[in-house]
Amino acid sequence: MVGKVATKLISSFSRNIETVFFMLLYREITERVLNYFPDKQEEFLKQFGREGARRSCDRHKTVLKFAPEVTDPEKVKEMVEFLWLVAFGRSPTLDYSIENEQDYFIVTLWIDECPVCSGLPREDLKAKSLDIFKNKSDGYACILTGLIEGAAKFLLDLQGRSEQIKITESKCMLDGHEKMEIKVKFGKNIDK
């Protein structure tokens, strides 16, 4: 009976069991944070991702030696792809663009599949906390972007780089966008 239910659950999501588990765990974490930190949930969740990544990276420095050294915008894109592969077990399918500012550049990534919501409609996730993330600087994937940002900062420190990096989800599939959009600001003065 349990096997049939699990199989039906997996096939209804069209994903493997790890993805379903990750989605449900992510939803529960956001719900709990909403209950305990109603005014600063986005900030808390982003920091949760950063700190989790930093601790994990500290334990797995050997894997990070294979990461591309970040020297230009193309390498920033490669670094995000590498960290995505390490975190989620597969490379993202994406398109990207690069904007040059005076002291930094912005790499915009359009990713075909979000590991957090997998492109499911908002109502199918049945999470009351989702509306909190509308019109915020980060979307529902703020733990995920915090995780990649934290790992990227760790990697930059490991490589002896002094640049800053900030990663945000600017378009969320839960809000009806065709793709997940992530913006990566990288350079000397990214807070201008």
Label the overall shape.
globular
The percentage of residues in β strands lies in: 15-25%
User: How many domains is the backbone divided into?
Assistant: 1
How many helices in DSSP terms? 7
Quickly give the CATH architecture.
Answer: 2-Layer Sandwich
- What level of helicity do the residues show? 40-55%
Supply the helix-strand structural class.
alpha+beta
**Number of DSSP strands?**
4
Q: What is the typical, i.e. mean, pLDDT?
A: 78
Q: Specify the CATH homologous superfamily.
A: Trafficking protein particle complex subunit 3
* CATH level 1 class label: Alpha Beta
- Output the helix-strand order: HHHHHEEHHEE
Strand order of the largest sheet: 1-2-4-3
Question: Terminal Cα separation, in Å?
Answer: 57 Å
Largest sheet data: 4 strands, antiparallel
Q: What is the alpha-carbon Rg in Å?
A: 17 Å
In terms of per-residue confidence, which ranges show pLDDT below 50 for 5 or more consecutive residues? Answer: 1-15
CATH-defined topology = Muramoyl-pentapeptide Carboxypeptidase, domain 2
